[in-house]
From TrEMBL:
This is Lipoprotein signal peptidase. PANTHER family: LIPOPROTEIN SIGNAL PEPTIDASE. It comes from Salinicola lusitanus. PROSITE patterns: SPASE_II. Belongs to the peptidase A8 family. The chain crosses the membrane at residues 6-25, 62-83, 90-108, 128-148. The active site is at D118, D136. Pathway: Protein modification; lipoprotein biosynthesis (signal peptide cleavage). It catalyses: Release of signal peptides from bacterial membrane prolipoproteins. Hydrolyzes -Xaa-Yaa-Zaa-|-(S,diacylglyceryl)Cys-, in which Xaa is hydrophobic (preferably Leu), and Yaa (Ala or Ser) and Zaa (Gly or Ala) have small, neutral side chains. It is found in: Cell membrane. It is a multi-pass membrane protein. Residues 168-185 have a biased composition (Low complexity). This protein specifically catalyzes the removal of signal peptides from prolipoproteins. It is an enzyme of class 3 (hydrolase).
Length: 185
């Protein structure tokens, strides 16, 4: 029996790891004070009331609910998509569950804290990439996986999809059909 929703375990792993690491970062890092790990990487506890790259972070708080609704809608929509996958669509399943797990991890922060806990900070010289977290990483990896799958699907010949679909529905290949009609061309 084919059960694409079994992939949701990966979302659960992302959520548990994300929330656990955020709790550790909140407990052991001083807010806004970088802890250098590598010359280009710090652990820095920050609170983001906006979305990616602190988009809308300066607003009065309504964005918290907007982003929460978007995360809920995306998670429901992606779960429906996941439930409709066919056997063998592994990259799509993994990608969808990574996005779902990341969205729910950040949703929890928004609903409970009113902000998302970020702690990963990369920099080069005086340039700093916006801080992010494991949930953001899972969402990004999931999006990359979906793009990659889309590119792989677009490279497949269209005619073979139609022939495969026709073969699947009739149960006969084109070779079977020509031999059953007596056509030896």
């Amino acid at each position: 029996m084919h059960r694409p929703l079994r992939w949701l375990w990966l979302s659960l792993v992302v959520i548990v790891l994300d929330l656990g690491i955020k709790a550790l970062a909140s407990a052991h890092l001083d807010y806004g004070r970088p802890l250098e790990v590598l010359p280009i990487f710090n652990l820095t506890l920050l609170h983001n009331t906006g979305a990616a790259f602190s988009f809308l972070a300066e607003h009065a708080g309504w964005q918290r609910w907007l982003f929460a609704l978007i995360a809920i809608g995306a998670s429901v929509g992606l779960t429906v998509w996941l439930s409709r996958l066919k056997r063998g669509e592994t990259l799509t399943a993994i990608s969808l569950t990574l996005v779902i797990g990341g969205a729910i991890g950040n949703l929890y922060d928004r609903l409970v804290h009113g902000y998302v806990v970020d702690y990963l900070s990369f920099h080069w010289g005086g340039w700093y990439y916006p801080a992010f977290n494991l949930a953001d990483t899972a969402i990004t990896l999931g999006a990359v996986g979906l793009i990659l799958q889309s590119l792989l699907d677009s490279r497949r010949p269209k005619a073979s999809h139609a022939a495969d679909d026709k073969t699947a529905s009739t149960g006969k290949s084109s070779a079977d059909k020509s031999s059953s009609t007596g056509d030896d061309s």
